[in-house]
Amino acid sequence: MAGFGKAMACREHVRIRLGTRFMSSSSSSWWQSVEPAPKDPILGVTEAFLADPSPDKVNVGVGAYRDDNGKPVVLQCVREAERRIAGNLNMEYLPMGGSVKMVEETLKLAYGEHSEFIKDKRIAAVQSLSGTGACRLFADFQKRFSPASQIYIPDPTWANHHNIWRDAQVPQRTYHYYHPETKGLDFSALMDDIKNAPNGSFFLLHACAHNPTGVDPSEEQWREISHQFRVKGHFAFFDMAYQGFASGDPDRDAKSIRIFLQDGHHIGISQSYAKNMGLYGQRVGCLSVLCEDEKQAVAVKSQLQQLARPMYSNPPVHGALVVSTILGDPELKKLWLKEVKVMADRIIGMRTMLRENLDKLGSPLSWKHITDQIGMFCYSGMTPEQVDRLTKEFHIYMTRNGRIRFALNHEYRTLTSTPAWQASIPAMLDIWQMLSTRSRGLPRLIAEAKPQIVEEVILI
Amino acid sequence: MWKCFSTTSRCFSTSTSNKALKWWDHVAPAPKDPITSVTEAFLADTSPTKINLGVGAYRDDEGKPVVLQCVREAEAKIAGCDFLESVSSAVSSKLVEESVKLVYGKDSDIIKEGRFAGVQALSGTGACRLFAEFQRRFYPESQIYMTDPTWSNHHNIWRDAIVPERTFHYYHRDSKGLDFSALLDDVKNAPDGSFFLLHPCAHNPTGVDPTEEQWREISYLFKVKNHFPFFDMAYQGFASGDLDRDARSIHIFVEDGNVIGCAQSFAKNMGLYGHRVGCLNVLCNDAEQAVAIKSQLQLIARAMYSSPPVHGILLVSGILCDPNMKALWVKEVKAMANRIQSLRTTLQKSLEHLSSPLNWEHITNQVGMFCFSGLTPEQVDRLLREFHIYMTLDGRMSMAGVTTGNVSYLANAIHEVTKFG
């Protein structure tokens, strides 16, 4: 959490006392104390990348899907939906809770197509500004109705989670999650943290494809976590930003949520269409809170709307229309499910290829974590200093926690066709060393390996 | 009601688990929003003669929502576009610059010198909220002075940003005009360096704007007191039909050397209600300070919604960045303002024609979308129950909902509920 603490310190500002000290003529003093904010660790990467004039540059930072030519992907189902709604000239305000149709369809994805909770109208749900907006609304709701509570956040987690609960003035703590040595789940430490937290604590869980580590609990582990949550009376808030991306099957990706629901938990869920529908810029998502009954759901929904009203009044209409057009049409929905599977499979394919190449090298090390880890990201274990070096010297952009978005074919081609490539191999070897837990034999292996295998293997 | 899937091997403390299920028992239903609830009730009403004078959304003479021609054209241009990710910072900066030109004038030095921090926002609400959060962060002891009355959501915004509010005199209930002397007194008596929320034109809900001369006096006083004026400009173009003229109050303050902030909305004047497009800008000393302030505003936005929705941004950008489209837009804004103006005249004349005992001059004196009718809550209620005419309980009528088709019915109804004083 050191990085987070530092960021907080950076943002401390000098309070200017008004009144007797203030001069009436100097209008320029109003904002003198305002320091530049620290760059967002994720968005700042893309900004820097865009500003870099180097022809060799590669961005493996932000979690945005790219095709084999490095272009953002517009799904076919989205193009078709846009075509259908083009010229739709309804620009009126949505209700505060957003598009009813969109929300209905979105709940089915999370809770199940035939969920009894939906039938019984027990879910308080509102359209949100993508995943960020859903998390923020929930954090504000938590602050308002459980003012003494804190939030337990996995270590590590998406950087913006910290900002969201902090700005909502909900104190945070972390719980063990990632095991740096195994590059997997630190399950026993996680369970200890759950047991040791005060009864009735709020926990933020990633439903699938954990960001940034790619490490998810197994189904059995989820069951144990859920059981322990029952014992302790904890509240589970799921951030599901990658449904469909983990396994290629949205229902399977929602398994953790379904387990908790079966166990009787009253959970909260943030859902986003940024990644799985490629609707990043449209800011479409949904916040839902499972309640005891319909009456409570109505009350909770009204309070969520009450929080949204002074933030943005009502959510944006366009993205919601795209989503409800797709999900409301069985053919389009089928197409979407296919396309999600293609995206997920491509990433799984890259992981498999990488692991196979490593095994081909005859590596004595285990690279199982590459295929064990799930989703868009690989948690490389690189230090911030090594990341900086990669960026400064080789124009490779990623977040300083060493999180890498899986590179695709075009990026291999780009990188290997440049003169900088040869120069970068020693640096890559350093990094390679860091990636392995037992590094003695590895540099020799790399040096002896055939160039093209070296290229593919190193570029993660 | 829910099924319990417990297995025999699991035993847990019953009292803990029962407590856990009572998470939201204490959550009461929120009070209905005074403005949106009017539209809800209207939509549920099946009467063929119903009229919605509630929300400030423009309607044509058939009472239908309007999509401006410039917007249609902008839509056509971006159809099939690949901009699904966050808007590039180039497009974003250009849009902010064009928006800010509407505030300060296209040849303003402020823009040439980059002396403003500007960010896109989620329409006017979002712009106000970003500023309120920024105000609390950098002036944690400050409060905000709001006009009495003001748009109801202003109270919610600054309250949720945890900035205490006070009101200052504005509307004079007897004259149905500006309570100018009381306003000046309040400005004088506020502690030096106070934050004020001002409506630069087409005041919501009253439709009462200071004259240019009055704005000069207010601006001068602000300079003396070193107050901070924050302008919420949601109806630029609707007051006079002329965008530049409607920003006159802001120009006056800036000419006097006041440092200001301004929220803009494209909801009404571009008809982009549901797309949530707006802009917040804060005047700065120099480009360097502008970078710092902008970064802080973006930080606030990051923890709220990360980035604004791209579709609306592309529409506004397509219009403002193309001289022909922009010229078309300017014409269309004027047409909307003219229609409202002419219906104001018609309504007033109709009431006079009915020999109403009351003075209805304020209908045409007030400007913008709203008429603060002076009707009491009881009269508003009667209008609803007997005539299916919907407005907010404070008597605010959105004139955009009046048409040549319904103005006589409206006049008759108002006359009915007010003829005995």
Could you characterize what this model shows?
The complex is a heterodimer of chains A (460) and B (421). Chain A has 460 residues and is of the alpha/beta class. Chain A folds into 2 domains: 41-73 and 336-428, Aspartate Aminotransferase, domain 1, CATH 3.90.1150; 76-333, Aspartate Aminotransferase, domain 2 (3-Layer(aba) Sandwich). Chain A contains 20 helices and 13 strands. In chain A, the strands form 4 sheets. A 7-stranded mixed sheet of chain A has the order 2-10-9-8-7-3-4. The longest helix of chain A has 31 residues, at 330-360. The relative contact order of chain A is 0.14. By secondary structure, chain B is an alpha/beta fold. Chain B folds into 2 domains: 34-65 and 336-419, Alpha-Beta Complex (Aspartate Aminotransferase, domain 1); 87-321, Type I PLP-dependent aspartate aminotransferase-like (Major domain) (Aspartate Aminotransferase, domain 2). Chain B is built from 17 helices and 13 strands. In chain B, strand 3 (144-148), helix 7 (152-160) and strand 4 (165-169) form a beta-alpha-beta unit. The longest helix of chain B has 31 residues, at 323-353. The chains are: A alpha/beta (460), B alpha/beta (421). At the A-B interface, helix 2, helix 3, helix 6, helix 7 and helix 9 of A face helix 1, helix 3, helix 6, helix 7 and helix 9 of B.
